[in-house]
Specification:
With about 375 residues, the chain is α/β, with parallel strands linked by helices. The protein has 15 helices and 13 strands. Helices cover about 45% and strands about 15% of the residues. The structure holds ligand GMT.
């Protein structure tokens, strides 16, 4: 198949899933065209069957806000025609799915290209449900030839929020555990993480939905009982709030801010626990990456997280905002070496058994085939 993938190129989970999917599809012999405003950060452009097309923008003094979406529509239409795309796979409803539909409109009746949309989470829960985007999000869902969501929770929320009649197929986030695993001697590799003591890690884009100050508050409780460091990986609007919380708890020596990192595997490999106390989380790709590195996850019981984390087996879940319970679970694990190791192994096992790329990528392939056959 000739597949166009439209995605965000930056460090969000939707862009990572889109890129990893494209790379796996190319390995299976499909031709994959990535379309974005810069190369997706996980994309190596030397792989056979993979192409990248940059959306170029005309700068013009009249444009107060550069009309990226219009240039994207134009680029998608151009590529459908020139590269004879069979499928446009839009990751994230806004603006990618909407732009794919408009590109098809521009091409007219003769275009037989199919539009598949993957809903990733905030495109439904935060952005798409906002009155400023709700109509075009519903339009994008209704007009898609196929829709997937990354968890049953998101599937349900899509039906509830948009009252759509269309079938929303669940295809989970995935990980290639042959490539992602716990690196030996990771602490030595990183250098600034001490060889002894416990290490907790949080990776996100530091948006309010991630509740980064809760991460610090959980760590503060843990630190009162055990020698530990907290690695904060990522950046975003809650960076300052996290810094303030660190100062308020007097944890300056024990919390390390790493900023945005392209490769988080060495940091995850240095960790004993992964913290994800999100307000909402449609799946939690960062937690899956941690699990593949044999790191148990302490997270909130929200969105798709209960589908990922098996409570009491691969980590623990507690209510959103229940810092005390989340910290108690963390302490319970950190004070029992054999339970910690057992849960780490169970976490990796669950990642490989249920969320392996070899399981999910064929589901996307089969889904495309059904859409092309007009059967979805
Ligand atoms: O919240 C993020 O980390 C980024 C965001 C995105 O759209 O890039 O992630 C969403 O999509 C990921 C991939 O499908 C999911 O694993 C995340 O759970 C989801 N984030 C939220 O729902 C908050």
């Amino acid at each position: 198949m000739n597949i166009g993938i439209v995605c965000y190129p930056t460090h969000g989970g939707s862009g990572v899933v889109a890129t990893e999917l494209g790379k796996e599809l190319a390995l299976l012999g499909h031709t994959v065209h990535f379309i974005s405003y810069q190369p997706p950060f996980r994309l190596e452009l030397f792989q056979p069957n993979v192409y990248y097309h940059e959306v170029e923008m005309l700068g013009y003094p009249l444009f107060k806000y550069p009309p990226y979406t219009l240039a994207l529509i134009n680029k998608i239409a151009e590529l459908v025609e020139r590269e004879k795309l069979d499928i446009i796979h839009a990751h994230y409803a806004i603006p990618h799915s909407f732009c794919a539909h408009l590109a098809r409109e521009v091409l007219g009746e003769s275009s037989r290209v199919k539009v598949v949309t993957t809903l990733h989470g905030t495109d439904i829960t935060l952005v798409g449900s906002d009155p400023s985007f709700k109509r075009i999000t519903r339009f994008s869902i209704e007009k898609s030839d196929g829709i997937t969501a990354v968890s049953h929770s998101l599937q349900e929320e899509t039906h509830q929020t948009f009252n759509v009649t269309k079938t929303v197929e669940v295809i989970y986030n995935f990980i290639n555990t042959k490539r992602v695993f716990r690196l030996p001697a990771a602490r030595k590799l990183i250098g600034c993480v001490p060889a002894t003591g416990r290490v907790l890690v949080h990776v996100s884009n530091f948006r309010p939905v991630k509740r980064v100050p809760d991460v610090v508050a959980i760590f503060a409780k843990v630190r009162r009982e055990v020698d530990a460091k907290l690695l904060l990986v990522g950046d975003g609007v809650q960076r300052q709030a996290a810094q303030d919380a660190v100062e308020q708890f007097g944890l300056q020596r024990d919390v390390l801010f790493f900023g945005v990192q392209d490769n988080v595997i060495p940091l995850l490999s240095a960790a004993d626990l992964f913290l994800l106390p999100s307000e909402k989380e449609s799946f939690g790709l960062g937690a899956l990456e941690a699990m593949a590195c044999s790191v148990p996850v302490i997270a909130t019981r929200t969105g798709g997280l209960p589908e990922l984390v098996a409570h009491g087996e691969t980590g623990y879940l507690a209510a959103v905002g229940d810092v005390a319970a989340l910290a108690d679970y963390a302490l319970q694990l950190l004070s029992d070496e054999s339970l910690l190791r057992q849960m780490g192994e169970a976490a990796r096992h669950r990642a490989a058994e249920r969320f392996e790329s070899e399981l999910m990528v064929p589901q996307y392939e089969a889904f495309y085939q059904r859409v092309l056959a007009g059967g979805n």
